[in-house]
Amino acid sequence: MRAPALRRIVLLAALAAVLSAPLAAAHASLQSSDPPPNGHAEYGLSVVVMNFTEDVEHQYTDADALDLQGNSVKAGPIEFDAEHHNQIRLPVKPLADGIYTVNWQTLSVDSHSLQGTFIFSVGNSTIKVPLDPNEVHNHPSGDVVKDGFARAVFYAGLFLALGLPFFLLVIDRDAGMPRSAFATAALFGILGAAAALLNVLLLAQRTGLGFGSAISTEAGLSFAWRGGLLAASVLCALAAVGLPGARRPLAGAGVLLALGSLVATSLGSHASADRGERALSLAADVLHLAMGAVWVGGVVGFLHTLWGRTAQEASRVVLRFTPWALASVGVLLATGTWASFRHVPTLSDLWLQPYGRLVLLKVALLGVLVLIGAYNKEIMGPRLARGSASPRFFRRVVQVEAFTMVCVLAAAGVLASTAPPEVGTEQASLGPPAYFELTNFTKTTHVVLQVSPNPPQVGVQKIAVLLHPLSAEGIPNATEVSIKVARAGEKEPDAIIPLDKINADTFSGEDGYFTSVGTWRVWVLLQRPDEFAKLTFDVPVAAPGAAPATS
Q1: pLDDT at residue number 205
Q2: Cα end-to-end distance, the chain, whole Å
Q3: Judging by beta carbons within 10 Å of its beta carbon (0-12, 13-18, 19+), is residue 303 exposed, middle or buried?
Q4: Which DSSP helix (H) or strand (E) runs through 435?
Q5: In this predicted model, which residue has the larger pLDDT, 153 or 328?
Q6: Is the peptide bond before 498 cis (omega within 30 degrees of 0)?
Q7: What pLDDT was estimated at residue 7?
Q8: What is the rounded distance in angstroms from the CA atom of residue 175 to the CA atom of residue 160?
Q9: Cα-based distances in Å from 475 to 78, 134, 135
Q10: Which residues contact residue 290 at a Cβ distance below 8 angstroms, ignoring those fewer than 6 apart?
């Protein structure tokens, strides 16, 4: 391989490394509150104010406040601020001494629901074991997979309904508008429109709003508009299949309608919910999707138009597509960098957070696509021009590229259904947390194990078990929690260590549980009137004086 060609391929691969992510969907998580999480309020508090990271949907967003006995102290329906669409106000009865729990749920414009909990004290009461204010319960993982699959199918339909007619109109103008290309655009467009409808159904199922109410939300309307405009583009493609003489104007109309669907998609994405730089994020999202459509449409277009052509004819199309491919790389670079800047707070989030790992997967797949594109430009195109390579071999290369694009779309769909790592709430500014935390679930309860100091060290440790109910009934008063402790790999001990009940959902103990450096296993025994569960947690124990963990 010539040195200049090798340098270009290496450069394109490096550019792929910063094509971090689509401008993916995030969640309206708690940003701040008054009183703050784990904070204190004076007697007579009558309203709790909560601010979220995104604007919230009125039909689903709600909150409640409970005392230690699980009784609601809510004084009326929540109130939405007319100017600050990310703020809600929770009226409460005048509060006396005690510790109170606030449970909230939100739905953001990008269709993602979130639930969370925080506590605060009033009057002379103090919180002995703080609850992590970032504690949230996302929608079940199965819904993430289904929602991600539906989004991936929608993206495929949108990209082909837009990219294939664009390829025939602008790039391969001599292909003669093959009927098969319009049939493919119509088929995938139908699947994409159906996927948009499935997203509405999943939204209704996840929120319990019912289909009519779900489709009237901002997120539901976005799905409806993007699916409807894509369906209209499908009608143009279907008409072009049967009307050879009108294919060019029908292709133009289909492109415009698909562009409308693309804009509606961006208006229902996290880009639209970006409170800081909404206009820039929207523009970047539209360009990101449009360039993806050009690239995908071009690759699939080659599969439809190469049949029966000579190597020289195929070479001319490859060289004509190259500037568009390079422009796609440049735009994806810029918009991907912007997305990373907005959604990935720290470099370590790329491998520590699920969102970041999905980003890396998509980066790897995009890197493969960039290398294939560079190979086509630097090697395949010239070979086709010289007649030393056949269009048949080029079709095989394009088929590999098309399969890789399918994988990219699948990764993008799941990525768009996964929350990017959030910059923490008020507690994050206080430095590393005072406790090391692990979580698990039973059928009824979200169980949080906290160990302090952080990291757990040989000596005296404090262990707290926090229970968060997965239903509105709360934690039964007769609930008991105890633990067993042993080195990892050792047999489960018979000795049971009961924990003191601090309040209805918090149990704590302090002792020298871990006597040496290494990994220790903690068995948490949860005894509720309606359930018994045993959960295991592995706790890494450091030498005394070790530095606290930052994540």
Answers
A1: 83
A2: 46
A3: middle
A4: none
A5: 153
A6: no
A7: 43
A8: 17
A9: 24, 20, 17
A10: 162, 259, 262, 331
